[in-house]
Amino acid sequence: MTNRKLRMGMVGGGIGAFIGGVHRIAATIDGEIELVCGAFSSNPEKSKKSGEALYLPADRVYGTYQEMIERERQLPEGERMDFVSIVTPNHVHYGPAKAALEAGFHVVCDKPLCFNMEEALDLQRLVKETGLTFALTHNYTGYPMVKQARDMVKNGEIGKVRKIIVEYPQGWLAQRLEVGNNKQAAWRTDPKQSGIAGGMGDIGTHAENLAEFITGLKIVEMCADLHIFVEGRPLDDDGSVLLRYENGARGVLFASQIAAGEENALRIRVYGEKGGLEWFQMEPNTLIAKWLDKPTQLYRTNLGYTTAAAKAAARIPAGHPEGYLEAFANIYRNFAATVRARMNGQEPTEHNLDFPTVDDGVRGMQFIETVVYAGSSHEKWVKFGETGA
Amino acid sequence: MTNRKLRMGMVGGGIGAFIGGVHRIAATIDGEIELVCGAFSSNPEKSKKSGEALYLPADRVYGTYQEMIERERQLPEGERMDFVSIVTPNHVHYGPAKAALEAGFHVVCDKPLCFNMEEALDLQRLVKETGLTFALTHNYTGYPMVKQARDMVKNGEIGKVRKIIVEYPQGWLAQRLEVGNNKQAAWRTDPKQSGIAGGMGDIGTHAENLAEFITGLKIVEMCADLHIFVEGRPLDDDGSVLLRYENGARGVLFASQIAAGEENALRIRVYGEKGGLEWFQMEPNTLIAKWLDKPTQLYRTNLGYTTAAAKAAARIPAGHPEGYLEAFANIYRNFAATVRARMNGQEPTEHNLDFPTVDDGVRGMQFIETVVYAGSSHEKWVKFGETGA
Amino acid sequence: MTNRKLRMGMVGGGIGAFIGGVHRIAATIDGEIELVCGAFSSNPEKSKKSGEALYLPADRVYGTYQEMIERERQLPEGERMDFVSIVTPNHVHYGPAKAALEAGFHVVCDKPLCFNMEEALDLQRLVKETGLTFALTHNYTGYPMVKQARDMVKNGEIGKVRKIIVEYPQGWLAQRLEVGNNKQAAWRTDPKQSGIAGGMGDIGTHAENLAEFITGLKIVEMCADLHIFVEGRPLDDDGSVLLRYENGARGVLFASQIAAGEENALRIRVYGEKGGLEWFQMEPNTLIAKWLDKPTQLYRTNLGYTTAAAKAAARIPAGHPEGYLEAFANIYRNFAATVRARMNGQEPTEHNLDFPTVDDGVRGMQFIETVVYAGSSHEKWVKFGETGA
Amino acid sequence: MTNRKLRMGMVGGGIGAFIGGVHRIAATIDGEIELVCGAFSSNPEKSKKSGEALYLPADRVYGTYQEMIERERQLPEGERMDFVSIVTPNHVHYGPAKAALEAGFHVVCDKPLCFNMEEALDLQRLVKETGLTFALTHNYTGYPMVKQARDMVKNGEIGKVRKIIVEYPQGWLAQRLEVGNNKQAAWRTDPKQSGIAGGMGDIGTHAENLAEFITGLKIVEMCADLHIFVEGRPLDDDGSVLLRYENGARGVLFASQIAAGEENALRIRVYGEKGGLEWFQMEPNTLIAKWLDKPTQLYRTNLGYTTAAAKAAARIPAGHPEGYLEAFANIYRNFAATVRARMNGQEPTEHNLDFPTVDDGVRGMQFIETVVYAGSSHEKWVKFGETGA
Question: Is the CB of C316 less than 8 angstroms away from the CB of B285?
Fold first, then answer.
């Protein structure tokens, strides 16, 4: 590979979408990636207009992802895209991901990975077989203080983990927005586009992923109470789950879209034998560490005492708040460094590889299937992976 | 009754106890009550020394509560105590409460009410039969901003309640302090003194009571995961509970004594159809109100816009923080006003009656019995009041 | 002295007053002091009614402080008051304080000490001559975390102090409440009752005192801008002051009664060569310590790592918030312990003596006179104690 | 102008610089601007390496800004840069800015504008004469909640402004880092590169600018105490200033680089007759509004009730924190929209024009010169613009 930016093609993310713009900023913010083409909408006219608004040449704006992948693969190496970024609703993850991998393109895919376990396992297999690089944008794990938390747990600073509280309350679906013209609400509450879970898939998976990321512990069984509060909505908009982790730790996870007045109040608390950690997404540059016998500490992004991985996830001197977009960008930055290393025949470093992969995606799909089953089950405890099927 | 302070006799609360001193301050802070006698310890020598340290005359310091009640009842009305305050460990609540009621004394009793449901129902019956006044010190409901929250829910400001999150994490029992000479740890982890529950009885009941107080809703069923993390401890030191309330609201309650680094982090969040409320015991003078479509508000103790009951629970101008002792004192103040009114043949006002009673105590005992059963049950949902017996 | 409570007589603090009730709670909360008599108002009828509401015998309720002092001194030792608590507006501090000292009674006096420097120096002389104990209720220095801050500075933890920011914004006088029937507003904005300063005397002195208490440093010169924002008000309701301390440290002090929306937002920040401390009166149980090279720490009331003086100023286990009344009570508690020790012919301990005295009062009066002069002066820097006279 | 990104050439910002990377992210984050060329260092070799790291073609990487401007102006319109971004230390602002304007290029320049008033006025004249667009990166005014605050003041929500407190404490220069190899510390404390002011120029100007931006009020006179705490440092590292504004409002401004333990704690409080506003840079997505008679409100980035300008400054749904880089990018985004509009012969909208200009820069230089003079003056009050010369 010559000295150039990585080239990204995008599936989805046309005008009016939310997460597409986030991905574009996250991908390009560090100057390592450029957007070169896209199939921005299943509506070709809208895709074209989106491409124009993004200053793309007309011949690199495609009507479908199939067309994009087919045409791009025929371009010379010095010109064609290097990877595909998939930012569509859940039911359109598997198709483009599979097509991209089969055509030899690396992939960045929004979460949850896909629509069901069958698709998930197929993608996992494809990634393994092709050796291509696959990133899943569980973006909250990109925050510097989340890395710090993970490292502190790993280093034994809080001792053996005993209790985990992870929560993601939102209030934006407290009313039935999906019957208006709120596109985000519409697809996220539609089983045909979202899958078998509503809130649990959309934000519960973030909570599950964040807890496993920080603690390094896996859920082994759970007990769930899922509910639909807004009449007429077909998918869960609230759920609470009791968790048991592999080391004997206990957990509570709750995710709600009807917690009126909440924005994106993702918060995690982890208590070990010697101390506890607390991190809150809406004030993400502070990690609170509590101790049995000394004053509570506030760890802050990019100060000298933070861990190497935490520092690597920061961009600017401490006290200049880094936000959601920068955390999201950390996934792209590490993904790009990994792709670049492999293109150059080098081993990616540990820092390069610090991003969620297809394996996190498989685990997330298992969480969704398990929690939906547990929610409807009369059994108290359901094993992780059990689906009643 | 002539114009004088109410006279309190105390059971328990000798030198070195924690809650006894709290009760004495709470009782006397407003100048409405004076401590006139006590049986401060089952150890007569210790009782005597405690009485001296409290500047009581020697002849009003008793060796046992039985002696105190017997002797005080024989004193003339102008001299004898008016009520008994019981601040002993749980297993010594029922005895003195029953004796006091039977002897015609009003009672203030620390929570939980007693040792088991049988005792609880007996006390409830006695209170009813005697017509005496009985206050249970679920002190957290004494905070001005908790009154404000209750009133706002009652007034429909947040709409129909959908979700309740109530939690009480502490860290002080993260290690096995009870094998040292920590008296507080010793009795609270001892089934003979504490009852069938550890943390769930000690602090879980506070959480349960606070949620029912604020929302006016009753739990109808629950699913619990109780655990003992510290080896050798016979009672639960951590527990998480899924709740279902009578109106269909869902809840999560967790209480932990092994949440390392936490002090008394009792927090409640209540979400309704129109907004949400959040209150945190460690910053008790702020009530956070969140709304679907307008800025979050911070309600503050004793500002002009607060409700009458919230104002009645405050003592000093806004911005001078009122704390735990003042909240606790609000129970005594209202109890005293009720007793005084009744002594004078008047009806207590609604504000006078704003304190927890024996009925809250019965409900708390039911909670303890249900949650312990639910924790050990293989059934997912256990009805409130069900004990497997 | 026999084993009994100390006896307090009160001057001022009749029904409807604010600070009188605070003093009564603060004095009696620990069971070391009892109110035995009072001259609660210059209006004898009101004094009498106040005494009744406080359950005092009619013959211990006096029409004037002169009468109270005269009559009490004639009572036998076992019966008469031990000390006088003065809770009147500023212009009625000197008279009762002088009379009490001359009659051999110890004194607790609200701040500011008196009306002018002449009175202040006379009281200082009297205290010295009589050897009696005199406490001035600069109550904010009673908070446990303020003690902690002082001790940490004294122990050199933050290094040589360089910069001090102390502020006391209030908003309650943003409008001209004094023309209504707000008694508090009326006397505090009246030069005849308040003295030559408005806000600077009422709350500016608290800020000055707090900064000197924590840092142990004295102001040597200042530059002030005082202003009256509310038309028709004769005294300053806002002021900002640049300070220079004896060790070369620089400071900023501002106090405002027109900071709309603020309650009692007294806050101090002290920066030394190695770290900084921050304390906020409205969340008084946390002391923030910031460091050059390690995480910010939160020191919390009554945790094991706090200093002896901080622990001595706390009453209940950490996490149960202690508030304004308890901080205020710490002055009374230490005053009482000092009086008691001296009555018993013992030396008070260092902890006993940890309360503000007449010397703090003299210094506060000097601050008032200096800052008022500096505010009107055309000179940039005015020496502490300089008054243009 | 055809449908394409705007083309940016950069002066300064080579490898190892801090603010250069910030500008590159801020410029390109929205996909409206691309970096096409640069003179990244006065060291040609370093400039070349920086260009390579940025994936620029070698022939667009220049050894000097003079060369860049000369060569770029000769390129065809479809290829040459559209504007110059100047990110060098203060003493190298004027030269490239002047050259760029004279060559017909628009300019974005870091603050402070330049080295002295003479340069400042010359640039102001040049901008006026050329009609080119000039943005000064007073980046803190780019935060959504700062826009909200400005709009609320402008709309009269807090009434006539009375008091302004603006502060910028940092601790990074508490020690003499400039003698080590800290490049940032070195130039900022060197009068030859930084100018006549240290902290007051570097961060004091941000405070001054923020206060004037939000309130729309101009300082008319000031009284300053500047100090150098770190021995051997030639420029102020701490300063406190009393301010008087044109409408009679009073202010306090302090800026410190020796406030040990502080990061970038820029905070502003503005009190009007009806309410107060508070904003803190380290939690930038919340604007606190306090009121005389109703609960404090928390305004949050990108919620429905925010003003149009505040919404325009946000990128992602509420609750996903936006940070320093996004605020910085808002200046570039509005600058770009203005340039684009003018290129297309259209009038920029009010939102397009919502960025700081050369006029803010002139005012900032005046602030620096006045405050340095005031700091050394024996006069108490110094008029804004007075320099003793």
Answer: no
Average pLDDT for chain C: 96
Q: Which residue in the set B263, B303, B326 is minimally distant from C325, CB to CB? A: B326
DSSP type of residue B61: B
Q: Is residue A101 part of a domain?
A: yes
C360, C352, C278: which is closest to C312 by C-alpha?
Answer: C352
Q: Which residues of A306-336 are buried (b: 16+ CB within 10 A; e: fewer)?
A: bbebbbbbbbbbbbbbbbbbbbbbbbbbbbb
Q: Cβ contact (<8 Å) for D319 and A52?
A: no
Strands B275-280 and B267-272: antiparallel
- Residue B55 domain-assigned (yes or no): yes
Q: Which residue has the tokens 């809840």?
A: B251
Quote the domain boundaries for residue C159: 142-317+364-376
Residues β-bridged to residue B11: B39, B86
What's the pLDDT score for residue B2?
62
> In this structure, which amino acid lies at residue C3?
N
Statement: residue C306 has pLDDT above 80: yes
Residue of B nearest to C263 (CA): B319
Per-residue confidence (pLDDT) for residue A268, from 0 to 100: 98
- Binning chain D into helix, strand and coil, the percentages to the nearest 5 are 40, 20, 40
Q: With cut-offs at 50, 70 and 90, classify the pLDDT of residue B1.
A: low
CATH code of the domain covering residue B36: 3.40.50.720
C42 and C120, same domain (yes or no):
yes
Task: State whether D289 and B299 contact (CB < 8 Å).
Answer: no
Q: Tokens representing B348?
A: 């207590």
| D33 pLDDT above the threshold of 90 | yes
Instruction: Please check whether residues C58 and C204 belong to one and the same domain.
Output: no
Which residue in C3, C202, C320 has the most chain B C-beta atoms within 10 A of its own C-beta, making it the best mutation to test that interface?
C320
Strand B6-11 to B83-86 pairing: parallel
Q: Looking at the domain assignment, is residue D19 inside a domain?
A: yes
The answer to whether residue B219 neighbours chain D at the CB level (below 8 Å) is no
**In chain B, which among 308-327 make CB contacts under 8 A with chain C?**
315-326
The CATH number assigned to the domain holding C205 equals 3.30.360.10
At residue A2, does pLDDT exceed 70? no
- The position carrying tokens 């401590």 is B35
Residues B307 and B164 in one domain: yes
Q: Of B84, B115, B137, at which residue does a domain stop?
A: B137
Q: Establish if D232 belongs to a structural domain.
A: yes
Instruction: Please list every residue in chain D whose beta carbon sits closer than 8 Å to the beta carbon of residue B303.
Output: 295
Instruction: Judge whether residue C245 has pLDDT over 80.
Output: yes
Query: Do both A154 and A111 map to the same domain?
Result: no
- Determine the average pLDDT of the residues in B22-49: 96
Same-domain status, A170 and A302: yes
User: Are D153 and D286 found together in one domain?
Assistant: yes
- Which of C5, C25, C54 is opposite residue B29, by nearest beta carbon? C25
Q: What share of chain C is helix, strand, coil (3-state, %, to 5)?
A: 40, 20, 40
Tokens of A99: 């097509």
- Mean pLDDT, range D233-261, rounded to an integer: 98
**How much is the average pLDDT of C274-283?**
98
Number of domains into which chain A is organized: 2
Interface membership of B293 toward D (CB under 8 Å): yes
Q: What percent of chain B has pLDDT over 90?
A: 96
Instruction: Name every chain C residue with its beta carbon within 8 A of the beta carbon of D158.
Output: 260
Contact C324 B325 (CB under 8 A): no
pLDDT at C2: 62
D379 at C interface, C-beta within 8 A: yes
Do B369 and B310 fall into the same domain?
Answer: yes
Quick check: pTM over 0.90? yes
Contact criterion met (CB below 8 Å) for D273 and D162: yes
B35 reaches C (C-beta below 8 A)? yes
% of chain A exceeding 90 in pLDDT: 96
pLDDT band at C105 (very low <50, low <70, confident <90, very high): very high
Q: Is the CB of B247 inside 8 Å of chain A's CB atoms?
A: no
Asked if D273 and D254 sit in the same domain, the reply is yes
Residue where a domain terminates, one of A115, A137, A159: A137
